[in-house]
Design brief:
With 424 residues, the protein is α/β, with parallel strands linked by helices. It contains 16 helices and 12 strands. The strands form 2 sheets. An 8-stranded mixed β-sheet has the order 5-2-1-6-7-8-11-12, sandwiched between helices. Strands 4-3-10-9 form a 4-stranded mixed β-sheet.
């Protein structure tokens, strides 16, 4: 008889299309319980007997996976909150799939951290691992500390918080016409939404060190040190995705799959991925002996991702790839973080700098939306000089802590003409 119990927080496409789906398909779980505050979504799955559908996009089409035996609970409902607390006490695996780590402590006594702490206080499971799936290199440590702060006693010894590297692209399709046109299965009857995830399933997690404990989800790949692989996702996958989104937006594309026919743009992405991101990461982490941090291994990683990013069945949008421009232009985020890493290892990030300048162009084109100061409005990226670009990026970065700030500004400014040529 299955012995594991999964409790998840947040019922988005990664929870639904990865954690809950893999738990269900493993056959190792007695219960799959997910907390979600969207009552319409909760009601639809509950009315469907705890069964939902997720669309899985592969190279040759879309498959529909049906997941059953799921208890979707709204913690805002007192009765369902009681059931959630009971499930947490017996959980062997807990997963958080939230918009950001800021949500761990949001909600006071009813926060996720507080609920997990309360569940651990009534700990009935022999051991519990907590997967933090937020896009933060130290999510597990932050969640563990937030939970510890809610307890009057130390954390139980057989509890471990684990980081994740989830390079699985996903989305929620909400347009009924698009759902019908693409033949997608709705999450459940009565709700005009569809989960769409890619088939890719090479998910990396921190190694479980609890003696004798075997996770119920068996497909994850454990690593002793996850940070190098988190950097590969941020400075590789995320960086190139944003570069394509920024430049693709400026070129007027709508769907990411359209970019695959733009040879000059894909060449920029390819060179930025392999010769700048890859070369820097290999110099930094090559001594690990992992295949990813070899020239051949990183090239396979890059070329596979470029194909997946433009998969017509995933139908990712250029707008989604290029959204949140201010955050993505952060000094330590995907674009400038990759450029800084390249500079640190003696590599000129000229292709990545085109992505940076494209992001700057998008920022300036939506000055009102991003609340740019009056003195920065009206700047034209095509004629930006070092002084104006420095002032603009100083506003974006607020308190830059990189030793390479001047070099990053110089590289970005130097990419102006190359980007203009690419857009012609």
């Amino acid at each position: 008889m299955p012995e594991h119990t999964l409790v998840g927080f947040g019922f988005g496409p990664i929870q639904a299309g990865l954690f809950a789906k893999e738990a269900f398909q493993s056959g190792n779980f007695r219960r799959i319980v997910i907390a979600e505050i969207d009552q319409q979504l909760v009601s639809a799955v509950q009315a469907n007997g705890g069964t939902y559908c997720v669309n899985v996009a592969g190279k040759h089409g879309i498959e529909v996976a049906e997941v059953s035996n799921v208890e979707l609970l709204n913690p805002a409902d007192s009765h369902q909150a009681t059931a959630l607390r009971g499930a947490l006490a017996e959980a062997t695996e807990v997963t958080t799939c939230l918009p950001s780590v800021a949500f761990y402590d949001s909600g006071g006594a009813d926060s996720i951290a507080a609920l997990i702490a309360e569940g651990l206080a009534q700990h009935k499971a022999d051991a519990t691992i907590v997967y933090a799936a937020e896009n933060n290199n130290h999510a597990a440590e932050l969640l563990g500390q937030a939970v510890a702060n809610r307890r009057s006693a130390p954390l139980p010894p057989r509890v471990q918080f684990l980081n994740t590297v989830i390079g699985k692209m996903s989305q929620v399709v909400t347009d009924p016409a698009e759902i019908a046109e693409r033949g997608l299965a709705r999450i459940a009857p009565g709700i005009d939404r569809a989960f769409l995830v890619e088939k890719f399933n090479r998910i990396l997690v921190s190694r479980t060190t609890i003696a004798g404990f075997v996770p119920g989800i068996e497909v994850f790949l454990e690593k002793d040190d996850l940070l190098p692989f988190e950097e590969a996702k941020l400075y590789g996958h995320n960086a190139i995705h944003a570069l394509l989104g920024f430049i693709g937006t400026l070129k007027g594309y709508v769907k990411m799959t359209e970019l695959s026919d733009d040879e000059p743009l894909m060449r920029v992405a390819h060179e930025a991925f392999i010769e700048e991101s890859g070369a820097a990461l290999i110099r930094k982490h090559g001594s690990l002996g992992d295949d990813l941090f070899t020239e051949a291994g990183y090239r396979r990683f890059a070329e596979d991702l470029l194909e997946r990013m433009t998969n017509p069945y995933l139908a990712d949008t250029v707008a989604r790839a290029g959204r949140d421009v201010v955050r993505k232009l952060g000094i330590n985020d995907r674009i400038f973080g990759t450029m800084a890493l390249a500079v640190e290892h003696g590599i000129e990030p000229s292709n990545m700098a085109m992505g940076a300048m494209a992001g700057v162009a998008l920022l300036l084109s939506k000055a009102d939306e991003h609340s740019l100061p009056h003195e920065l409005r009206g700047l034209d990226w095509r004629i930006l000089d070092i002084e104006d670009l420095t002032r603009l990026l100083a506003w974006v970065w607020r308190s830059p802590d990189s030793a390479n700030v001047r070099r990053l500004v110089d590289c970005t400014c130097a990419a102006r003409e190359s980007l203009a040529d690419l857009l012609e």
